[in-house]
Amino acid sequence: MRRKVVLAVSIIMAMSLMTACGASADTADVATEEIVTEAVEETEEETEAETEEVTEEVTEETASGTDGVWEYGEYTYTGDDNVIYAIDFFICDELAKGYDASDVGIPTIIEVARDDSDPEDIKVWGEFLYDTYDLVGDTMESQAGGSYPGCMHVKTTEAGCGYEVTGFDVVADGSDFDSSAKEIFGDKYDKFMEAYSDGDAKLEARKDAVDGYVKTHTVPATQFKDYGSDPIALSANSSEDENNQVVYMGGLYANDGESDINLALFKSAGTPVVVIQEGEHYYYGEFTTEEAKLEDGSEYIKITVEGKTFGYHFDDETAMSGFVVDQDGKSHTAVGLDESVANDMKKATE
Length: 350
Prior knowledge:
Shape: globular
Number of helices: 7
Radius of gyration: 27 Å
């Protein structure tokens, strides 16, 4: 798509230049001006037709493996570790620069150790991976990737509502690798080298990362593949026991100290279902929704299950914060619900 834009802009610039040249003839008489104007108009019409033809041609050539525009969204971290969320964001925002365009880029974090004793300088040692993929048929095919071992420095944001990466000590390449790794990892060097040398564990971690993305964004992929390697099956769209497959889509739990509502959204055999835990009571099953507003104008989704009405609102696509609304219509601040807790809630309804 970038080539499409560049070509269109180039043609428009050419049109502008031609128009300017025609209008700059100070010595031209009126008849000449009319001829020039007419010629420019004809050129613009021809150029517009050419632009359409070129655009269609380039679109075909540069279409992704899906044979169309990527519609599944960018990678977003869906866990409940805000430090990892900040590192994931840094990888996708900074380390991903310089990679060619692809359908999606997915980070993988191999954490070796963490020191969170200083909230102004939380240190996370490990190997940080970034891989880009195109969806080709039902396969997430790896296009490029990089490994960045070292130590991430993270601190709370100035607003105090999250974390951000403030620095990254990267292990050097080539002959300086070992000495810089020892300097950065210190007494964690042996543990780092053990993790760094475990190719099978890293491949499994990458598989889990791709699987998580495929589940979250409902991508129709059943496997992922590195160049020259056999494809590896994903669990997200496995045909095995498909009728019983349950996929966690996100959830919230109230954290204002006034409510104990947990709300978890799932897809069960492709059908949306919800589990809401309020104290010792569980409400589970298919549900209906409608848009609603609080008295202060805040919008939320009103959700009704088993005859009980609650509500929820996610602040953004990361599903890491928002609010829930109890049966009395009162809102409570909430944060992302861990998948393990959601699965325990689901089991309690079985």
